[in-house]
Amino acid sequence: MPKRKLTSLPQALAEHFSLPEDVVSGAILVTMVGNCGLRIENHRGIMQFTDCCLLLKGKHKNLRITGKRLIIRQFTAEILEISGMIESVSFEMGGRK
Amino acid sequence: MKKLYRFLTGYVEIVISGIGPERFLNLCQHHGLELWALQARDDGYHICISLENFKKLKGLVRKSRVRLRICRRTGLPFWLYRNRRRKLMMAGTGCFFLLLYALSLFIWDIEFQGNLHYTDVQLRKFLRQNGYDCGMLVSDAGCEQLEKLIRNAYNDVTWVSAQIDGTRLVVHIKENDGYLKLSAGQAEEEEKSPSDLVADVSGTVQSIVTRSGTPKVSAGQEVKAGDVLISGLLEYTNDSQEIFSQKSVAADGDVLIETISEYQDTFSMTVLEQKPVAGKTGYFFRVFDRQFSLFSPGTPGDQEEQLVQEHQMKLFEHFYLPLYWGTIENTAYALEQHRYTEEEARAEGEKRLAQYLENLAKKTVQISSKNVIVQIIGDNCTVSAEVHAVYQAAERRPIPQENLLPKENQTEQNEHD
């Protein structure tokens, strides 16, 4: 029996109607410029912020950014911009629907 | 732009410390307060926030139970507050901007573009006589009246456009080159009327190509100035070789006449040369018509030359100000007698010959010189050469009446080819 692809309803709708997935599903949108600039949208707030680590809350998953000399250049309701030496960007379980 | 806006409105750098500073950040985000330059340091979070948003932090600070401390105040509002006692400085700054605005209401520079025949000095003098000069109000400088004035005063100016850019009056002029076209038209008219083509110099005919008329000379023939080369009379003969009819045309053709002429020039081997001896430089600064000088070299004497370089101050490309600065340089010369060496005399002679040939080349088709001899006798140097020039005959002369048959035997050229 062929395996079923695990997709949620919003994802399926976005795929079917060619809608932007971040708008439909509310996922975090990450735009990276090399390893020294990062722009994040659709986040739900800061959970932890230090000089070398930033943990952001997302709708489904949390976003962890590690690096050195991290500075939040801009922090508004919509956008979060980070600069510094970014070493890794990873997603963790968590978040809230 | 954002930085400038932030500076103009003012912002503060605060330090947040306590149990839940992240909660404070999230509350700011939730209330739409913009934060920037967020850094995590040992003493807490350093955050920059605008002055307007800072006033809304009280409730959030209490809610998140953090401690807030202002560590830096930046921006125009704080600067004004710090210098509120410096009334003279404020007044001076205000006067400066007021003066700048007042100066921008006047014309401080007039520029002419496109003028070839009329110099800037001439046009500026004309404008001054009609009330247009540096120092007049921009509102009084009527561009349309100025354009009419120049068009009426100068007949050979076909197009004028005056515009005001900042404190600068720019006048674009297009001069009439129609005189050249008119004279070319006149020449065309002359060419079409019945005429003979005559030699304007004496020499040997190098080649003759007749397009219209009767050739009177052939290649290799010697001609004198004034001789008819191509006649404008076409004669029709009968069987007994008698001319029974004539037709008058404008003679046309290419006749090249070669001439050989002698060139001789004598000049002295001793010349007076101006050698700079000493120089003095002074500086000046002028506001409107008042001039202030520093180390002024004074009026130049008989053996002195003065060079003045003036620059006008401008803020932007078109914002000229009535402030001028520059240098005045007086250079003294001593006249020294210098005797040419043989090489120098030869070079000077050849230079003079080249200049003569260059002037002659404007009227000739081909020019060359042979047998150039430079002789130095005593205190004089003589340059002689044989100049071979080829001229194209272009002089026209109306057909003499005595050559014409009675009217009944003539056919006029009615149609122009």
Automatic annotation (TrEMBL), chain A:
Domain of life where this protein originates: Bacteria
Name under which the protein is recorded: Sporulation protein YqfC
TrEMBL record, chain B:
One family name in Pfam for this protein: YqfD
Residue ranges of the region described as Disordered: 398-417
InterPro entries noted in UniProt: YqfD
Keyword annotations: Membrane, Transmembrane, Transmembrane helix
Residues spanning the membrane: 88-108
Source domain of life: Bacteria
Descriptive protein name: Stage IV sporulation protein
Organism this protein belongs to: Cuneatibacter caecimuris
Source organism phylogeny: Bacteria, Bacillati, Bacillota, Clostridia, Lachnospirales
